[in-house]
């Protein structure tokens, strides 16, 4: 425990830096508190006099806690968060200051946002953007600053961030899910929320070693590095003892997260050496997205206090498991139901099956978007590489649920181990044993008892895009279902027909087997015709497919222009990442690796000639000298080829074409350069090798 929380229990300091419901109840007049709660739950707008009262209470609370500044905290398309700090001071006529914070300042900010990516949306002459308070996510204090979660738009209203579409998508899924609940006779639910719990993987490396690696500093991953003698093959790290230094870091991290009201719950070692995971307790998708951003930020910051560096890159080390982020997703209603919980009674079962079928249909029809939500240069190293799910989207539902869907489709009764009798609308599916539904770690999207766990996301990704897409896709299907069912004369038989049809048409997306096998790739692509969008450049163009644009426009999540801008930003980002990596490799190869090889070769040759001068032949030394000199030549050629490839990129026109060029040409040449350098690493004396190697980075903590 740190000084400030010594002698305190978690409950004493949990959420102590959050302006949450408890604080608001204490500090706001009753009517104001009620209005804010109404806004938090139903998204109704706050009028300006109420906003003034809230702002004032927020300011007083923040100042008591030592805050001097406030910031509108937002999530531009850079993938990380942005903030601009203003102090609370306001001059008075007598030359002094008072501390002020108005409702207007709370509700709206105007950051000069011209340097954030807009994908051509904002002309430079109209570079202003504005930020708007998101009252559904609590304000908090960090580093003596009051943080106000906000959405970020251009002046003409185009979305420039990751929060706005997420809030919109939560709204539409709420509307459509309520229609379905109503059809099932529900009169108590007035709000449906989507929930997410993001399990976060990361690596920790020693700061002093990190500082010696230009690639880690500039790109977040090692661009060179031969396989160490020991990797993860003994599986002795997974859930193993946590080293003291790491455990001190984890304790500190938990404490800081708890102060911000983030429900950090489970910390454990992961499969790879030096890899760990942190899982929070789930919450609504927009808060989960905010919290995940804060979590990543605090991980990095707190690691430094322990002389460690937290690597969030998806693939910091070749040949060692990469890091992902599992987005656990579900839906719940404000009358206390998890809508993805199979439940115990026939009606609950049917309701559950309706939501399940809607999700299955949605994932099948929009698997390209779901895949795309996990696309990035970093994540390309994981997906499909036998450690993360394959790049093909499919769903795992487990044997028991599978037998229920089969029975429904074939109008039969479920028999077998689960001893469940299932006849539509008659018997209950009472015994989904929650634990039998999972542990297929090879599935991109696994039903895990009462939620879907999406495992494609990369560790550095924001979870927003995935949740926007899940929410929208599911809203779309629920609206189609509701349209059909609302006009049916006989609800039960219409529902049954609808579900049977859905299962028949979309069961190809359900796959309960081993997603890592080659047979699956063959079956998925050849028999089931599922898309296999291997890399970022393969999936990004599908963003603008007609069906996708139609859906986003129908639900007013994005306009076509906004989708085009997002696609462009992501493609540009891809090319930039590879470009930086290529330049870093060239730099390291020329300035560090090549000179090291020369120095070592010189030493070997000097030894050789002094031996020769006294008449001793040394075949081994001669062989080594030859090998070094031939590898040095290859290294030089590979550097030249990569440099040429980068020069040629200047002739490529079009964002997509350029991204493809980076993938097919530049990236391929980077791999060649790396292979030679890694071979040199295993042949050059460690005395000369210019930077720490994998065994240092992975095992010296
Ligand atoms: P594991 O995947 O290790 O078995 P759990 O199943 O307990 O662990 O939970 C994994 C993650 O799923 C946690 O972050 C948890 O909060 C989250 N989760 C659990 N229930 C839900 C839900 N209804 N909606 C969204 N996320 C959930
Ligand atoms: Mg998990």
Please describe what this structure looks like:
This protein is 47% helix and 12% strand. It is α+β, with helices and mostly antiparallel strands and 701 residues long. Strands 10, 11, 12, 13, 14, 15, 16, 17 and 18 form a nine-stranded mixed sheet that branches. It is globular and about 100 Å long. Mean pLDDT is 90; it is low at 416-436. Bound molecules: adenosine-5'-diphosphate and magnesium ion (MG).
Strand segment tally: 18
Give the structural class.
alpha+beta
Q: Any idea what the radius of gyration is? A: 28 Å
DSSP helix count? 22
Mean pLDDT score: 90
Q: Identify every distinct bound molecule in the structure, by name, code or SMILES.
A: adenosine-5'-diphosphate, magnesium ion
User: Could you tell me the strand content as a percent range?
Assistant: 5-15%
What overall form do the CA principal axes indicate? Answer: globular
For the biggest sheet, the summary is: 9 strands, mixed
What distance separates the N and C termini?
Answer: 21 Å
Low-confidence stretches: 416-436
Helix proportion: 40-55%
């Amino acid at each position: 425990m740190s000084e400030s929380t010594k002698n305190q229990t978690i409950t004493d300091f949990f959420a102590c830096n959050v302006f949450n419901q408890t604080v608001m109840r204490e500090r706001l007049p009753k009517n104001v508190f009620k209005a804010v709660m109404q806004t938090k739950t139903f998204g109704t707008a706050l009028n300006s006099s109420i906003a003034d009262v809230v702002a004032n209470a927020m300011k007083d609370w923040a100042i008591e806690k030592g805050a001097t500044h406030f910031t509108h905290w937002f999530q531009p398309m850079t993938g990380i968060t942005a903030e601009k700090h203003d102090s609370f001071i306001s001059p008075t006529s007598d030359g002094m200051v008072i501390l002020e914070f108005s409702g207007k300042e709370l509700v709206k900010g105007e950051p000069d946002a011209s340097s954030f990516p807009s994908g051509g949306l904002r002309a430079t002459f109209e570079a202003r953007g504005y930020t708007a308070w998101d009252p559904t996510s609590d304000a908090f204090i960090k580093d003596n600053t009051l943080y106000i979660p906000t959405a970020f738009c251009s002046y003409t209203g185009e979305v420039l961030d990751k929060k706005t579409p997420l809030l919109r998508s939560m709204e539409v899924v709420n509307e459509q899910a309520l229609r379905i609940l109503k059809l099932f006779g529900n009169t108590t639910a007035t709000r449906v929320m989507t929930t997410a719990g993001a399990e976060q993987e990361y690596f920790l490396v020693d700061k002093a070693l990190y500082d010696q690696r230009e690639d880690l500093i500039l790109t977040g991953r090692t661009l060179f590095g031969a396989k160490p003698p020991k990797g993860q093959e003994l599986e002795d790290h997974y859930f193993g003892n946590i080293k003291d230094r790491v455990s001190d870091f984890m304790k500190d991290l938990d404490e800081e997260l708890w102060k911000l009201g983030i429900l950090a719950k489970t910390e454990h070692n992961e499969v790879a050496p030096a890899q760990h995971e942190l899982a929070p307790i789930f919450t609504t998708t927009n808060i989960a997205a905010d919290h995940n951003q804060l979590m990543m930020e605090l991980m990095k910051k707190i690691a430094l206090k322990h002389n460690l560096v937290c690597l969030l890159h998806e693939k910091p080390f070749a040949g060692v498991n990469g890091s992902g982020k599992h987005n656990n997703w579900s839906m719940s209603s404000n009358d206390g139901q998890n809508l993805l919980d199979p439940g115990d009674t026939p009606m609950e079962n049917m309701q559950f099956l309706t939501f399940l079928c809607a999700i299955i249909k949605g994932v099948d029809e929009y698997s390209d978007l779901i895949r795309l939500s996990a696309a990035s240069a970093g994540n390309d190293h994981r997906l499909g590489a036998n450690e993360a799910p394959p790049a093909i989207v499919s769903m795992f539902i487990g044997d028991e649920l599978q037998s229920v869907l089969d029975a429904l489709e074939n109008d039969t009764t479920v028999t077998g181990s689960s001893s469940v009798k299932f006849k539509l609308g008659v018997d209950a599916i009472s015994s989904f044993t929650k634990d039998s539904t999972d542990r297929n770690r090879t599935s991109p999207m696994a039903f895990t008892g009462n939620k879907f766990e999406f495992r494609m996301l990369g560790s550095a990704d924001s979870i927003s895009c995935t949740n926007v897409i899940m929410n929208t896709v599911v809203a779309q299907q629920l609206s189609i279902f509701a349209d059909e069912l609302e006009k049916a004369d006989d609800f039960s038989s219409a529902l049954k027909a609808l579900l049977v049809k859905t299962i028949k048409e979309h069961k190809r997306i359900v796959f309960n087997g081993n997603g890592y096998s080659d047979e699956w790739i063959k079956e998925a692509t050849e028999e089931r015709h599922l898309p296999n969008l291997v890399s970022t450049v393969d999936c990004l163009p599908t963003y603008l497919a007609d069906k996708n644009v139609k859906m986003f426009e129908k639900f007013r999540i994005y306009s076509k222009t906004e989708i085009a801008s997002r696609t462009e930003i992501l493609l540009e980002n891809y090319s930039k990442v590879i470009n930086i990596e290529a330049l870093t490799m060239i730099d390291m190869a020329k300035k560090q690796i090549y000179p090291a090889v020369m120095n070592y070769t010189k030493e070997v040759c000097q030894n050789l000639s002094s031996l020769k001068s006294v008449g001793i032949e040394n075949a081994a030394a001669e062989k080594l000298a030859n090998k070094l000199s031939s590898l040095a030549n290859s290294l030089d050629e590979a550097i030249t080829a990569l440099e040429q490839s980068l020069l040629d990129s200047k002739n490529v026109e079009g964002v997509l074409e350029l991204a493809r060029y980076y993938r097919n040409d530049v990236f391929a040449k980077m791999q060649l350069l790396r292979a030679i350098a890694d071979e040199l690493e295993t042949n050059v004396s460690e005395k000369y090798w210019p930077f720490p190697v994998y065994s240092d980075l992975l095992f010296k903590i």
